[in-house]
Known about the structure:
pseudouridine synthase activity; 5-stranded antiparallel β-sheet; single chain; Pseudouridine synthase; extended; RNA pseudouridine synthase 3, mitochondrial; 26% helix
Amino acid sequence: MQKNKLGHHLLSLARYYSRVAPPPPAYADPVIRVSNNVAYLGSPKQGPKPRQLLSLPPFPGHHLPGKNSATGRVTAISWLKYYFDEISDSAIQSHFNNGLVKIESSNPNAADSFIERDGQMKSLRKIKHNEVMEVGARVWVPVSIAETRVSRRFDCIPSGTLHPNADEIDYLRRLVKYKDYAILVLNKPPKLPVKGSLPVHNSMDALAAAALSYDYDEGPKLVHRLDRESSGLLLMGRTKESISHLHWLFNDINPAKSSCKAWNDACDAKFQRYWALVIGTPKENEGLIRSPLSKILLDDGKTERVILAQNVGLEPSQEAVTEYRVLGPMINGCSWVELRPLTSRKHQLRVHCAEALGTPIVGDYKYGWFVHRQWKQMPRVDIEPRTGKPYKLRRPEGLDVQKGSVLSKVPLVHLHCRELVLPNIAKFLPLLSNNAETLSPGLSGKPDLLRFVASMPKHMKISWNLMSSYLV
C-alpha cells in the first residue's frame, strides 16, 4: 500500500513534454566529443527542447465570415485559416500533414502529449484537417506558425518605408565622415548592402534616406556603389543639383566639359583607391589591367556572374581598366595590393584580381573558390634573406583574433575603399548652376578638391597586424 502511494506521488511529479522524452539527467557520466579535430570532455548533450505551443481561443461555434453556412459545419483547417489569415494555405496544410496541430482531449488514453494550462495538465491529441470543430474546442499549434505570420508581414514592407530606431540612427551617423549642404561621405562596414530591394530592408540607401536627412526634407541618394561584401568610402548626394553632377562625375563617358577650368581640373584629379589582400602575388609589382568584362547567366538561369570578355564579337562587353601596385612582400602566401579603378564596372576589381592577375581577393569565394581550396592558412615560417634566420612571429598586444581575418576558417572579403578624392561640389555648384566662368569671392578661398581616407574594418586590421608581425 505504501509503495502504491509512493508510485502515485512520483507520477504526479513527472514532467510532461509535448514532443520528446525528457533530457538525460545532469549526473550522467561525461563523454568525449570531437569538434574541429579537438577532443573535449564534458557532460552529454541535452536532448531537443520541447516544442513551444500556442493556444487558439476556444471555438465560438458560429459560422465564419465568408464561409458557406449551408452545411453548418466548420472544419479544423477552416478555423486555422480564418485565425491565421495572413499565412499561406500551403503552410497551414503542411502543419496538419506533419501532425503538429493538436486539440485538447477529454480522453487521456487517446492523448499523445500533455500541456500545462491554468495549473492543470491537459491531454492533447493530433487533429486532422477535415475534422469538424465543436463549440469550445481549443486547438494548439506550434509557435512557428505565428512567427511565419510575423515574418511575412515584414517581408511585405518596402525598404523605402522603414523607420530606423534611435540606435540605428546613432550607428549610421557615426559612419558619416564628412557632411556639407551638397554631399555626405560615409565609411560603409562590410556585409551591409548598398542598394535595397523588397527582400533587403537594411540597405544603406533605405537607412540613410530615413536617418541621414538631417534638416532636409529628403534623405541623401546614392551616386555610386560598393559591393555588399566590401567596405570603405561611400559618397551620397544631398540635393538634386549635386546628385546630377555626381552622376556625371562617376559616369565613364563624360559629356562636354564646363567652361570653368578649375572645375575641369578638379574632375580630372578625381580617383578612388582600394586596398586588398590577395592570395599569391602579381608577377609585376605594378601595372595597368585593361580587360573588358562581360556578364553571363549560370545554368540555373538566375545567378549572374562577371567574367573577362573573350573578344570574339559574339557577346556584349564593357571596357574595364584598373591600375594596381603591390604594397609589400608576399607573407604566408598573401600580398597586400593597392587598386585604382579607372572605370566603374560591377565586380571589376574582384574579377581583375582573380582572372587577370591570377590572385583572387581573400574571402572572395565567388571568383576565387578554386584557389581558396588550395590555399593553406596555417602560419608558415619564412627565412629572412639578410640574416638567414626565420622571421619571428609576434602577435601585437591586445589583438583580438575574431572571425573574418586570415586566421578564420572562412575569412571575409578583404577589399576596402580606403581613399577618395573628388571635386568640392559645394564650391562649384553655384558656378555650374548659373553657367558662370568665375567663382564668387566668398567661394574662391575654399579648396578645389576634397580628400578622404577611411580606416579598414576590424577583420582587415587584424589581418594587417598579423601579417606585419612576421616582419620583426
